Amino acid sequence: MNETESQWDKLLKIKTTGRDDSHADQYRYPYEPTPYSVLERLANSGLIGKGNTLLDYGTGKGRVCFYLSYQTRCHSIGVEYDERIFSGAEENRLHAVSGNRTAFEMKAAETYPVSTEVDRCYFFNPFSVELLQKVLAQIYASYYENPRELLLFFYYPSEEYLSCLMTEEQLLFYDEIDTRDLFGGNNEREKILIFEVI
């Protein structure tokens, strides 16, 4: 385990390291936390601030919510369907330094109604394209109810995700945050793609 990862967990008073694929299947992918170095780059982008509410899909143990709430002062909501992993997020929330700005919902992402407060959504390949399309429908419904600047962040996007996102009429490519330099090498997937709902 990377030392920086455990240092951040310690500072935030949470436990989020490690991978868990005990309940993964063809639709829902394993829990794997986003590296802190990637989250730091996202936090420094200026695209998330204290006036924002971030929704993290497939939140796992809540790392994205805790870190971004701590660094940017945003409010965050994590959605997780796996009861055992969800209980880890709730346990973390009791001790986390940014716990009062975070909330977690145990629900399947595709049936989760997106609050009209939410204006930032984060994805680290949490589920299949089939589920992604259902989730996008929920996001669009929320947007039509309350039109606002609504940005979607996709870290390490798969080919399937890219194909889907590029054909969505309600999405406009907004920007890209390159993260290849953080890991040495030239992995084309090492980036955060940002789309705006229109």
UniProtKB/TrEMBL annotation:
InterPro entries: SAM-dependent_MTases_sf (IPR029063). GO terms for molecular function: methyltransferase activity. Keywords: Methyltransferase, Transferase. The keyword Transferase applies. It comes from the Bacteria. This is Class I SAM-dependent methyltransferase. Signal peptide: none annotated. GO terms for biological process: methylation. SUPFAM superfamilies: S-adenosyl-L-methionine-dependent methyltransferases.
